[in-house]
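Hi R.,

Here are the chain sequences for the assembly we discussed:
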Amino acid sequence: ETGVTQTPRHLVMGMTNKKSLKCEQHLGHNAMYWYKQSAKKPLELMFVYNFKEQTENNSVPSRFSPECPNSSHLFLHLHTLQPEDSALYLCASSTRGGNEKLFFGSGTQLSVL
Amino acid sequence: RKEVEQDPGPFNVPEGATVAFNCTYSNSASQSFFWYRQDCRKEPKLLMSVYSSGNEDGRFTAQLNRASQYISLLIRDSKLSDSATYLCAVNPPRAGNTGKLIFGQGTTLQVKP
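And here is the predicted structure of the full complex:
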């Protein structure tokens, strides 16, 4: 139990579907992140939220829409995805203040058909 | 040049062997450094931070060489359970006060009986 919970663990969706990924952290952290991990590629940062405010959008296509209602919850809304979006999507959290460590959730394995 | 680079391996070693991985980073002003361990189909988990003076945790030793811009991870007396992918992560200077990390591709270690 890492203190960061992601649901669902697995998701299969068609290109016209709308789905959402959910992340909740129980660590009292103030920063939350979405990372994408594709096969044979490094983890890619997608979005960063600090105290519910988005501080980074790493040139992510608009078919990915994040939402952070509070410091403990983070969502990633998915709409009209492409097959190349199939990947492991990882949520992470950290305290704020620099040099802090990331704690990851177990990820959502997404397959887009 | 990639911001963070690792030799993907795989490194195949017998039990009891000593193995070392390097990770190079391109931005000389990078601020903090970490090693993460990722098991197959699981999330990355923090293994250890890397301090300027070098640090050790049991069989694991991490070192930072700022002049040559690389970090290293040494594993002594390898165990079967050490088999995993080891990711290095760097906190670049533009990250400011967030835990934004840039990850390497990962180095896969297979420890054989």
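The mean pLDDT of chain A is 91. The interface with chain B takes residues 2, 31, 33, 40-43, 45, 48, 50, 55-56, 90, 92, 94-107, 109 of chain A (CB under 8 Å).

Let me know if anything looks off.

Best,
T.
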